[in-house]
Amino acid sequence: MEKRPSGSDIFSAIVEAPFGAIGVRTEAGVVKELVYLPSSFDGKAATDPLADRAARQIAKYLDDPDFRFDLPLAQVGTAYQHKVWKTIAVIPRGDVLTYGEIAKLIRSAPRAVGQACGANWFPLVIPCHRVTAAGGLGGFSHHDDETGFHLGVKRWLLRHEGVAL
């Protein structure tokens, strides 16, 4: 079976992960996007120094859940999304907050928090996997199929960080 889908050329690097892979897109000296990819994607060597730096940092996180990212990120998102992302970014490894808890912290609504989580261009760096529903895992990356790929990624990340599911 051919492992390189036609879209792999849009990534500056692809890092293989236990749940599949992570695509890295860089442009003009910033990380433009990180994308969870299924295992049908092979790893791809970095095409530029920043993609190499991002790939090395992702690999370090996959080995050590306490690793802290230090990458220049593209300026994307609305002021509201930035407010949510800033709150998510301080959730410690091994902890989770619910959409409702974050909503209370920023005086918003849980659904709006969920939408901002789903719009996160930089998963892992902004750890939206640490946000769950009050009654369970919740959705992930605008996907909420309990048996789907993205929720499998969320489960793996939380277990990797020591969260009992």
Write the layout of secondary structure elements.
Layout: E1 13-17, E2 20-27, E3 30-37, H1 49-63, H2 79-89, E4 97-98, H3 99-106, H4 110-118, E5 131-132, H5 149-160
Parallel strand pairs: 4-5
Antiparallel strand pairs: 1-2, 2-3
Helix pairs in contact: 2-3, 3-4
Concise summary:
With 165 residues, the chain is an alpha+beta fold. It has two domains: 6-63, no CATH class; 79-160, Winged helix-like DNA-binding domain superfamily/Winged helix DNA-binding domain (Arc Repressor Mutant, subunit A), CATH 1.10.10.
Radius of gyration: 15 Å
Low-confidence stretches: none
CATH superfamily annotation of the largest domain: Winged helix-like DNA-binding domain superfamily/Winged helix DNA-binding domain
Strand content: 15-25%
**DSSP, total strands:** 5
Task: State the order of secondary-structure elements, H for helix, E for strand.
Answer: EEEHHEHHEH
List keywords for this structure.
165 residues, alpha+beta, Arc Repressor Mutant, subunit A, three-stranded antiparallel β-sheet, two-stranded parallel ribbon, 5 strands, 15% strand
Fold and architecture overview:
The chain is of the alpha+beta class and 165 residues long. The protein has 5 helices and 5 strands. The chain has a 3-stranded antiparallel β-sheet, with helices on one face. It has a two-stranded parallel sheet with strand order 4-5. The relative contact order is 0.14.
